[in-house]
Amino acid sequence: MDRRVIRVDIPPAHAGITAALRRAFEAAAAEPSDRDFAELLRKLN
Predict the structure, then answer these.
(1) Fewest beta carbons within 10 Å, which of 6, 33, 39, 41?
(2) Which residues of 3-36 are buried (b: 16+ CB within 10 A; e: fewer)?
(3) How far is the CA of 11 from the CAs of 7, 8, 28, in angstroms?
(4) Are 22 and 41 in contact (CB under 8 A)?
(5) Dist CA 45 CA 34 (whole Å)
């Protein structure tokens, strides 16, 4: 399965949601997983 990255501009009002997602996935990034959470966090920045 091919993956495509779709980038969208995030309105400033959503900055809190983005920060909450970043914090939620930081702990998971330290744990081995099938999904590369470090890559997900990089994309969220």
Answers:
(1) 6
(2) eeeeeeeeeeeeeeeeeeeeeeeeeebeeeeeee
(3) 13, 9, 26
(4) yes
(5) 21
Residue 29 structure tokens: 């990034």
| Single pTM value for the model | 0.40
38: closest CA among 2, 15, 28? Answer: 28
- Tens digits of pLDDT across the chain (45 residues): 688 888 878 788 888 888 888 888 786 666 666 566 777 777 887
